[in-house]
Amino acid sequence: MKTLTDRQKEVLSFLVEFNREHSFPPTIREICANFGISIRAVQDHLLALEKKGYIIVSSGEKKHSRCIRILQKKRESQGFGVALRVPIVGSVAAGKPIMSEENYDGHISIAAADLKPSKSYFALRVKGESMIGAGILDGDIAIIEKQCTAENGQIAVVLVDGAITLKRFYRDADRIRLVPENPDFPVQVYDDAAVAGVLFRIERKY
Q1: Is the pLDDT of residue 57 over 90?
Q2: DSSP-derived pairing of the beta strands 176-179 and 121-125
Q3: Distance, CA of 98 to CA of 49 (rounded, Å)
Q4: What is the pLDDT of residue 62?
């Protein structure tokens, strides 16, 4: 079985999602714009997907923009389902649920095979450098698995004072500690705080 790299999965997810929404595949330039990468990089990814049997780039249509055909049976046989749209949420206003319409900031497409079928997810745009020690950088998109509890030491999304923060979570006997992964930032201590989910994975565009 020829497995896909994470980036190849992302590209294939985008092809599937775009084709499903528009009933035709994206152009090379549309793929470039979505991922912020060069034409050559896109062509390399498409060539890899073609060699692994997931798509066909029609050789007789090289002069045309939309020449990508997704091979449905191959995709399904590898458990690579339709891409799912995970909502991205922004800052949360006091008193508003985290998934309220006011907080919606677009979506990110994730391959269904990469997500747990029994779980729900949302995403956050990472701002700042408080978690760089955990490899979480400014501008990353954090994919969050929804749940209302977190184990000590897990990286969690926590609602405090009407805002959301992504920190390492610890529940002591009489307080909550939210610990950054950067010594330049202080540990935050609260009497109580609401967990909205735990970090599932990080998405980053290069």
Answers
A1: no
A2: unpaired
A3: 37
A4: 44
Number of structural domains the chain divides into: 2
At residue 151, φ and ψ (nearest 5 deg) are -80, 150
Residue 108 domain boundaries: 83-203
pTM summary value: 0.59
Instruction: Tell me the CATH number at 151.
Output: 2.10.109.10
- Hey, which residues are catalytic here? 130, 167
**Residue 1 is assigned to a structural domain of this protein:** no
Per-residue pLDDT tens digits for 99-108: 556 667 788 8
Helix (H, G, I), strand (E, B) or coil at 19: helix
Beta bridge partners, 68, equal: 57
Confidence check: pLDDT of 90 > 80:
no
Q: Is the pLDDT of residue 75 over 70?
A: no
- Which is it for the CA torsion 133, 134, 140, 142, positive or negative? negative
Structure tokens at 39: 């034409």
CA distances to 6, 85, 112, 192 from 115, rounded to whole Å, are 13, 11, 5, 30
